[in-house]
Specification:
single chain, 337 residues, alpha+beta, Triger factor/SurA peptide-binding fold, Chitinase A, domain 3, 2 domains, four-stranded antiparallel β-sheet, 12 helices, 54% helix, 16% strand, elongated
Length: 337
């Protein structure tokens, strides 16, 4: 399941009221000898998100999101800037949710935060010292900073529980409909096909005469196979690709992984049947079916709770997206850059 950005991130979002700065915007931080301009990235109702927050969050998540990218290259810089913009949108979303939490008077106690921290530590089998070190490795300077971040996450989750999760209900009819869909898929594209193939390559530039010649060869091979000749020998003798030259046994494949032109013919084939030549974009295919079996299907009683969870998670995702969209529609959000 793909949840909203604020749920996927465990980073701290520090938001400062505009009133703190009065009319002195933008904000300057640092010592008298080293004044650093910290610009405003966005205003969300009466709260601001600073450039430094966006950059800090983007840097902390960039490697996990973008992988092994050279950020000094033009392409790396372009990807990082895209990631930074997404990070800003995520921070705006979190601010809106925290504002909603204040409006709904939702909060969590220090004891609940302490219990959550201890749960994270014990689930990862870490001593208190190891836990502190793990936080530092994640770029979190202290346990107190982590507690503040976790407090916000718990508040956000509690708001979602009240505003979205409590309104989701999955009926039995929905579960049965999804089960029926899965059964159809198991007998469709999920069907497992054990094939042998002789592939005859036809270049895109081939003339009509060349195509006809290759087709006549394919028909000759099919006739020889049906006459009892060995498939492996003919595949090695005539096949154009490596699999054919190795004997043509493709093993089990999902029907959905086959080229579109081959999916329908294999459904009506019985073990031992020979079909071809069948033309695709790449050339001609001569097939022999070894075995086929439907994708594994559990009984409804075995599958229903798993399917109910799947439907619930999908509904929760849609609910969160719609809810946060509505929060943003009602809010004043000014993205500065």
């Amino acid at each position: 399941m793909r949840l909203s950005a604020f749920l996927r991130s465990a980073l701290l979002c520090r938001v400062l009221p505009l009133a703190v700065f009065g009319a002195t915007l933008p904000v300057f931080t640092g010592s008298a000898n080293a004044i650093v301009l910290d610009r405003i990235a966005a205003v969300v109702n009466e709260e601001i998100i600073l450039d430094s927050e966006v950059n800090q969050n983007a840097l902390q998540t960039a490697r996990a999101e973008l992988g092994d990218v050279d950020f000094s290259s033009p392409e790396g810089q372009r990807k990082f800037e895209q990631h930074r913009r997404k990070t800003l949108e995520s921070l705006v979303e979190r601010v809106l949710i925290m504002q909603q939490a204040r409006e709904m008077k939702v909060d969590v106690t220090d004891e609940e935060v302490k219990s959550a921290v201890e749960s994270v530590r014990t689930q990862n089998n870490l001593t208190p010292e190891q836990f502190q070190e793990a936080l530092k490795q994640q770029g979190i300077s202290s346990l107190e900073e982590y507690k503040k971040s976790l407090h916000k996450q718990l508040v956000q989750m509690r708001v979602i529980n009240q505003a979205v999760r409590s309104k989701i209900s999955i009926g039995d009819d929905e579960v049965r409909a999804l089960y029926a869909q899965n059964v159809r898929q198991a007998s469709g594209d999920a069907m497992q096909i054990h094939l042998k193939q002789i592939f005859l390559s036809v270049p895109p530039t081939a003339t009509t005469a060349q195509i006809d010649e290759k087709r006549r060869l394919g028909m000759k091979i099919v006739a020889e196979l049906r006459g009892g000749k060995d498939f492996t020998q003919l595949a090695k003798q005539h096949g154009s690709d490596d699999a054919s030259k190795a004997g043509g046994d493709l093993g089990f494949l999902a029907r959905g992984d086959l080229p579109p032109e081959l999916r329908e013919p294999v459904v009506s084939m019985d073990p031992g049947d020979i079909r071809g030549p069948i033309q695709s974009e790449r050339g001609l295919h001569i097939l022999q079916l070894v075995e086929k079996k439907s994708g594994e299907v559990k009984s409804f009683d075995e599958a229903k709770e798993e399917l109910r969870r799947q439907l619930y998670e999908q509904s929760l995702e849609r609910g969160i997206q719609n809810w946060t969209k509505e929060l943003r529609r009602k809010a004043h959000v000014d993205i500065r850059h």
